[in-house]
Amino acid sequence: MAERSKIVQQLREEQIREINEFLISNFSARLLTDHELAHEGRIFAGWLIEISADGRQFGVRVLIGREFPFHPPEIYLQDASYHLKFPHVEKTGKLCLTPVQASFSPARPKQMVKYLLDQARQLLVDSLAGTNREDFITEFQSYWPGHLPEKTVPFYRILEPKEESRIVHYWSGSTFTLFAETIAECREWVKNINGGSLPKGMEIYPSVFVWLQTPLYPDDYPMTTQLQVRPSDVWHNRRTRTLTNF
């Protein structure tokens, strides 16, 4: 086992040197310092380069993890604020460039990096032109949760599968919020999950279930319920919440 680890380590170091030469000669790359890598987690090596797309320059980090060369390098935008502005950009700035099941030859590290950077450039070109904007719709479930705070309390719903907007009801606990068609259904469900008793001082409020015909683009994601439905349009109650079908 020790001998195998030594061989893998030697292979990794040789391939990193090859990638380093490629990035320096083609992108004037700067090797990230140990201090910079310490903020990246389980990263063995990394570089900062610039990619030109449609006349604009983008800072890009090429990071090699501990699983390399059996796992491809990861490509990150230096400016993570493009998350939800460009498709396929995670909160951290990581670019999703290949399917999860994609495989690469560990014997061709330079070609692997070149392919990923070509994909990154094309992603930036398409994003600037807006030609891949529909990816926000076709892959909606990948983006919708991404704009929520990390400690958001989950929403559960026991609603009938009806394609219509309507008044429903909700209860908020310390660990989750429940939406139900009626007050009685809400009370019964909470009672069952709470061991046969209702929480002390339990209050159930009206809510609005909004059925949308198509998913939203990130530009239209609401940050508060007031951005979705004006209270005057639906219910004159300050405790009203809004739930969409997504």
From TrEMBL:
Pfam families: Prok-E2_B (PF14461)
Span of domain Prokaryotic E2 family B: 48-147
InterPro entries: Prok-E2_B_dom, UBQ-conjugating_enzyme/RWD
Annotated SUPFAM superfamilies: UBC-like (SSF54495)
Protein name stated in the entry: Prokaryotic E2 family B domain-containing protein
Upper lineage: Bacteria, Pseudomonadati, Verrucomicrobiota, Pedosphaerae, Pedosphaerales
